[in-house]
Amino acid sequence: MTKRLLIVGASGDVGRGITEVSVQKGWQVVASGRNEQKLQELKSLHNELAIVAGDLCSEAQAEQLWSKAVGVYGGIDAVVISVNAPVVDQYLFDATADELLGLFQSNVLSHFNAAKTFIPKLAADGMFIGIGGGMADFIMPKMAHQSILQSALRQMYRGIVKEATKEGPSIKELMILSMVNGASRRDIAKPDWITDLDIGNHVCTIIETPDEFPKTVLSLQKRDQVGQ
Question: CA-to-CA distance for 109 and 117, rounded, in angstroms?
């Protein structure tokens, strides 16, 4: 069955892989992001792709994005949120409170605005997937702020599911526990890194066979786990 899929953050390394795989499946895909030029570049690779510029920095803007997206195909069956601020190496005490607040806005509240706005509008057989990172359980040098954000994101999705009605759509967080071989890192990627297409295939499998992925928080660490 053809799916109508909205991907927010479609022009990023992870989003591009999800976009490519879902388009190859023949799904009706709406690619969204803040940068119109990057979306146009993505469309030049996939002419059948629909693009919608938009932002998740507030609930009002999320509402606007949703309205434009559903207008393309008359509805949305599944949503993937793959948005985050650029990673910056920085000691925690070298950051200001305002800088941490900005990172929280970009990495956590963007997902919150999308979830609060989109989930109630999805059908009971729909799917909402947020893409998260793998540092929720460990801290790398100069990356403590990332661990804080990723831990908060994971607990947010758990809280949303805890409070959700049983009749609502499936809600998942997919944590990527690996470096990603995406468009911006092809020249430095190692063979064991998960590729953007690996993530795309895994996300599409979750959407196609939700009963095989019953947990709220899912993880993808190795390439041989794709689709499992």
Answer: 12
Q: In the chain, which residues have pLDDT < 50?
A: none
| Cβ contact 70:122 at 8 Å | no
Strand partners, 8: 32, 81
Residue 1: its pLDDT value, please?
A: 72
Contact 5, 76 (CB under 8 A): yes
Alpha carbon distance 42, 70 (integer Å): 20
Report the C-alpha gap between 76 and 219 in whole angstroms.
Answer: 25
What CATH number is associated with residue 26?
3.40.50.720
Helix H, strand E, coil C: the string for 89-118 is: CCCHHHCCHHHHHHHHHHHHHHHHHHHHHH
| Overall domain count for the chain | 1
Domain hosting 120: range is 4-225
The answer to whether 32 and 52 are in contact (CB under 8 A) is: yes
Per-residue pLDDT reduced to its tens digit, 154-211: 999 999 999 998 889 999 999 999 888 888 888 998 999 999 999 999 999 999 999 9
Angstrom distance (rounded) from CA 4 to CA 1: 10
Alpha-carbon separation of residue 63 from 4, 111, 119, 126, 139 (angstroms): 18, 13, 12, 18, 35
- Mean pLDDT taken over the chain: 94
The pLDDT of residue 165 is 81
State how far the Cα of 192 lies from the Cα of 204, in Å rounded to an integer: 21
pTM of the full structure:
0.96
